[in-house]
Design brief:
The complex is a heterodimer of chains A (about 525) and B (about 90). In chain A, the strands form 3 sheets. Chain A has a two-stranded parallel ribbon with strand order 1-6. Chain A has a two-stranded antiparallel ribbon with strand order 2-3. A two-stranded antiparallel ribbon of chain A has the order 4-5. Chain A has 23 helices and 6 strands. Chain A has one domain (about 40-500): Orthogonal Bundle (Ribonucleotide Reductase, subunit A), CATH 1.10.620. Helices cover about 60% and strands about 5% of the residues of chain A. Chain B has one domain: Monooxygenase component MmoB/DmpM (Phenol Hydroxylase P2 Protein), CATH 3.90.56. Helices cover about 25% and strands about 45% of the residues of chain B. In chain B, the strands form 2 sheets. Chain B has a 4-stranded antiparallel sheet, covered by helices on one side. A 3-stranded antiparallel sheet of chain B has the order 4-7-6. The longest helix of chain B has 13 residues, at about 15-25. Classes of the chains: A mainly alpha (about 525), B alpha+beta (about 90). The structure holds fe (ii) ion (FE2) (2 copies) and zinc ion.
Chain lengths: ~525, ~90
């Protein structure tokens, strides 16, 4: 090839450095080299049709990623050197970081493992390269998030063992099982689940509010790692959309398979994001936008444009989208109410909103907050102030699929819990919704194996029979120090010390503060 | 139904030039300032031209440099040496 001219154009460079690096096998059969490519029923007739719109090659990848890392770590250093944690709006905010570090950062690591695996399983070189680059990105996200939060771990409680907790704590089985479900599926379902449904359709709802929230609450370190990760995300999202279009264009038999996966992973993602909804509405002292507003912009508007675009392939919007749209005015309140009651078993503190926050909630949720939630929250607030902070000691019924307690209500009646159950081979299984029940019915042999935290506690598999033993010994939470009511907690006390400019306690003393 | 494409950048020094260039080439686009980020949306199509960016910046600019400052996008991507386009069909 004649490369006389000084610079290859993007298209040629991409061709030489990705597609042309692959070869046709001669002494092994393709099916033996890529054994997982067939079983899901997806038909690929021509891998060369695969488009990577960013046309990213390894040399450019290292160059831009190195630049991102340099910027990021300069800011981490500045943040630590200037005691950046003292400039946040309020220490209640740090609880959002505890949720993030134990609930989201381990998912980045799971994504790294997932993409490294599928990056080996496709016979098309373009898809393999895109997945391998993404695997490295996801590992970077997991690492930079832990580095950013390590500064907070020096000054606040509850950030000390996130990876251990991710595999054990009851509500963390919600994000964990989501990714485990995707990673234990075939390679095409994995991409539909994570690249398309999660990253393209829903990830804006996770990162953009979280990072804007961090910016609004004075947390420079989190804004920076978040946006640095998001700069990779634009590439991941594009991959997600291209994957779907590619599979749909390859064969019409792929359409119903993809539609079923979109239905499944939209619903699973929507349930998972209820954690983000409560974070936005309740855990940010300075609020950016309500969960309902974020859902309107990032799902109803952007998702609407997307599914209109996909119509020409015979794809319709996800099943139960109407239920999800209607739920935007309820999920955050229902989720926070649940975490408040079970805060003896969470790895962060909870509290009832202050009066001006209640006013904000009434304004943002004119049809639901005052009517369904305010009275209960005011009652709990009063109880707490009178020394009777409410904790619920009955373990909840979990959904067999999303693993969230059955706490959400019916679409047409917010006073009735949504609960479904079916019998399968003599056993009864419980669900939070028709969406989750449908997912089970399609693959019962997968979901009967679910590791449900409440069942596991009752079966004696979590270190003990009472809350204190499970929480302290099995979850590694310091009961009453890392969790329960925020007001009067060591974190709260420490924050008052910081703001009152009293001498600070040393790090070694912080865990024992009363 | 309206079909908006969008792109969001970190609100930093580079972004000022990007926004300026985008607005020059897409006068109907709408710029939204949000905490730490700038979001630009447009009906159906949004284009970033290398030529306009180089003019605005006063130096050579590689379309892939944008990857450093972008936060999120919505729409089908078409990129080559001279432009970055987002669109819905
Ligand atoms: Fe990531
Ligand atoms: Fe990602
Ligand atoms: Zn469920």
């Amino acid at each position: 090839m004649a490369i006389k001219n000084k610079k290859l154009n993007l298209k040629d460079k991409y061709q030489y450095l990705t597609r042309d690096m692959a070869w046709e096998p001669t002494y092994q059969k393709k099916e033996d080299i890529y054994p997982d490519e067939q079983f899901e029923g997806i038909k690929i007739t021509d891998w060369s049709q695969w488009e990577d719109p960013f046309r990213l090659t390894m040399d450019a990848y290292w160059k831009y990623q190195a630049e991102k890392e340099k910027k990021l770590y300069a800011i981490f250093d500045a943040f630590a050197q200037n005691n950046g944690h003292q400039n946040i709006t309020d220490a209640r905010y740090v609880n959002a970081l505890k949720l993030f570090l134990s609930g989201v950062s381990p998912l980045e690591y799971a994504a790294f493992q997932g993409y490294a695996r599928v990056g080996r399983q496709f016979s098309g070189a373009g898809a393999r390269v895109a997945c391998q680059l993404q695997a490295i990105d996801e590992l970077r996200h997991s690492q930079t998030q832990q580095h950013a939060m390590s500064h907070y771990n020096k000054h606040f409680n509850g950030l000390h063992d996130a990876a251990h907790q991710h595999d054990r704590i009851w509500f963390l089985s919600v994000p964990k099982s989501f990714f485990d479900d995707a990673r234990s599926a075939g390679p095409f379902e994995f991409l539909t689940a994570i690249s398309f449904s999660f990253e393209y359709v829903l990830t804006n709802l996770l990162f953009v509010p979280f990072m804007s929230g961090a910016a609004y609450n004075g947390d420079m370190a989190t804004v920076t790692f978040g946006f640095s990760a998001q700069s990779d995300e634009a590439r991941h999202m594009t991959l997600g959309l291209e994957v779907i279009k590619f599979i749909l264009e390859q064969h019409e038999d792929n359409v119903p398979i993809i539609q079923r996966w979109i239905d499944k992973w939209f619903w699973r993602g929507f349930r998972l994001l209820s954690l983000v909804g409560m974070m936005m509405d309740y855990m940010l002292p300075n609020k950016v936008m309500s969960w309902a507003e974020a859902w309107e912009v990032y799902y109803e508007q952007n998702g609407g444009a997307l599914f209109k675009d996909l119509e020409r392939y015979g794809i319709r919007p996800p099943k139960y989208q109407d239920v999800a749209n209607a739920a935007k005015n309820h999920v955050s309140h229902q989720a926070w109410g649940t975490f408040y009651q079970y805060s003896q078993a969470t790895n962060f503190h909870t509290w009832m909103p202050e009066e001006e926050e209640m006013t904000w909630l009434s304004e943002k949720y004119p049809e639901t907050f005052d009517k369904y939630y305010r009275a209960r929250f005011e009652h709990w607030d009063k109880e707490q102030k009178e020394g009777r902070r409410f904790y619920n000691n009955t373990l909840p019924q979990l959904c067999q699929v999303c693993q969230i307690p059955v706490i959400f209500t019916e679409k047409d009646d917010p006073s009735v819990f949504s609960h479904r159950q079916i019998k399968h081979e003599g056993e009864r299984y419980h669900f939070c919704s028709d969406g989750c029940c449908d997912i089970f019915k399609n693959e019962p042999e997968k979901y009967i194996q679910a590791w449900l935290p409440v069942h596991q506690i009752y079966q004696g598999n979590c270190g003990g029979a009472d809350v204190a033993t499970v929480v302290e010994k099995y979850y590694h939470i310091n009961l009453g120090v890392d969790n329960m009511e925020y007001h009067g907690s060591p974190d709260h006390q420490r924050w008052l010390d910081i703001k009152g400019l009293k001498p600070l306690q040393s790090n070694s003393e912080k865990k024992t503060a009363a | 139904m309206s079909q908006k494409v969008f792109i969001a950048f970190q609100d930093n020094d580079n972004a000022r030039y990007l926004v300026e260039a985008v607005m020059q080439d897409n006068p109907e686009a709408e710029v939204q300032h949000q905490p730490a980020m700038i979001r630009i949306e447009a009906e159906k199509r949004l284009v970033i031209n290398r030529a306009t960016m180089e003019e605005t910046l006063g130096r050579e600019w590689d379309v892939q440099e944008m990857l450093i400052d972008v936060i999120s996008i919505g729409g089908n991507v078409d990129e080559d040496d001279d432009h970055f386009i987002l669109q819905w069909n």
